[in-house]
Amino acid sequence: MTRRSRPPVASVLAVCGAVAVLLDAVDGSLGVATAFGVGLQPTDLALADLDGDGALDLVTANRNSDDVSVLLGAGDGTFGAATAFAADDDPQSVAIGDLDGDGALDLVTANFTSNDVSVLLGAGDGIFGVASDFGAGTRLSSVAIGDLDGDGALDLVTANGTSDDVSVLINQR
After folding, report:
1. pTM summary value
2. pLDDT tens digits, residue range 30-45?
3. Which DSSP string do the residues of 122-160 spell out, in sequence order?
4. Neighbouring residues of 122: CB distance < 8 A, sequence distance ≥ 6
5. Domain 42-169 coded CATH 2.60.120
6. DSSP code of 23?
7. Which of 93, 13, 98 has the alpha carbon at shortest distance from 46?
8. Is pLDDT of 135 > 70?
């Protein structure tokens, strides 16, 4: 977002189809919220430098438009227009990591209705390919990324709402 001393505050505004960003002021307080349009009913957001320019970019999971919105950051707390990339049905959560080991960040969503995760491979420029979907449990509510088996490849964990358990997807790259 900006190169300031503390992280900015960002929140999804589900009713409005927007993300609100609040930057810290010189006196340590939070400034006025600025809204940026995204898809329909955003449910989660994540921040990372998706295009390698040193500025944080913003991604939202949008449950009613079945997609993610990518907003490239300018480095001053503002963002460009949202670009939508399709996910499967009802994405609830989004996480960011290099899943295929090519040095470019990828996106993954936890999809509530379709009971799967969507993996969107990144090109390193803020553009993502067509989603690949992998079954993962029942009524997914959240997804996290980490190297669970110590092989250097990032794996996925989902929280499953109906069954009150988690699913682990080991990366086979």
Report:
1. 0.91
2. 878 888 999 999 999 9
3. B-SSS-B---EEEE--SSEEEEEEE-SSSSSS-EEEEEE
4. 50, 104, 105, 106, 107, 128, 129
5. no
6. P
7. 93
8. yes
